[in-house]
Amino acid sequence: MVRLTLFTGCFTLVKQVAVEASILSVLKYFNIELVVPRSVNCCGFAFRSVYPSLSLYLTGRLLASLYDAESSGILALCNGCYLMLREAIHRLRENPRQLEFVRSYLREEGLDLRSIPRIVHPIELFHDMIGIEVLRGISRGGQDRNTVIATHYGCHALRPSTIPSFDNPLNPSKMERIIEALGFRTRDYPERLDCCGAVLLASNPSLAMKMAYSKISGTARWGFQLLVTTCPYCFEMLDSRQEAVMQMFGDEPKLPVMLLTQLIGLQIGLSEGSVALNLNLSPVDRVLPYILRR
């Protein structure tokens, strides 16, 4: 049995609880043991630009407090948290002075960086740890094989390219392989690696909405029936805010959006409620007849 320490991040619990609810339901099926920590802190993403040393300390504190010798790693549900954790590991390994800075403050709390854990992304979990062959095994038919699904990785899952990630930052393919293993079709499209606009919501909301509109309308224009992502911030922009985004540009909601875990959950026979599909605000009803197992 694979054992992982779960780190949801702040945004998942505050705004996008479907991310946590769906992955908890799905991983029970695959016999993945999740260790849920009693208390955690912010990953430091909010302070990354304005207070870098505090940001690094907060991420280092997470690495120390979430360490579990019997765990295969930390499963980070949020792309922003995933970036912060892998960036901190990179910096602490490359810079002994920064490592000592973080450890000096950790000692005051009785904590220490005894070992650097593996940081696991949900796509990595399904592709590398659960495996493509296992996913092919759950695809028992009933879906419309002509359904074409667009993938959306999100910026912080892959970039910057100077920090090791789970896939090729310029031409990722693991989510596409997962989609195909589930029995659906997918293909490349010009907006595949575009930003959803979430990081600009606070500083330049109009530009953020424009970027989200470009992603939604562009993806729909290429004939995809569904867009799938794993990131709570991307899901916020492309699903939860889709109606507001489209209205802002004189358009209407047109692209069903799901979490990857919701799609997988439906393929293993979980109910729509079990994967929190009732929380989706994009027009997912349009695509359900084509992806539900019958």
Automatic annotation (TrEMBL):
Entry-linked Pfam families: CCG
Highest taxon of the lineage: Archaea
Annotated TM spans: none
Keyword presence, Oxidoreductase: yes
Entry keywords, A to Z: Oxidoreductase
GO MF annotation terms: oxidoreductase activity
UniProt domain Cysteine-rich: residue ranges: 5-86, 149-239
PANTHER family on file: COB--COM HETERODISULFIDE REDUCTASE SUBUNIT B 1
The name this protein goes by in its record: Cysteine-rich domain-containing protein
Taxonomic source organism: Ignisphaera aggregans
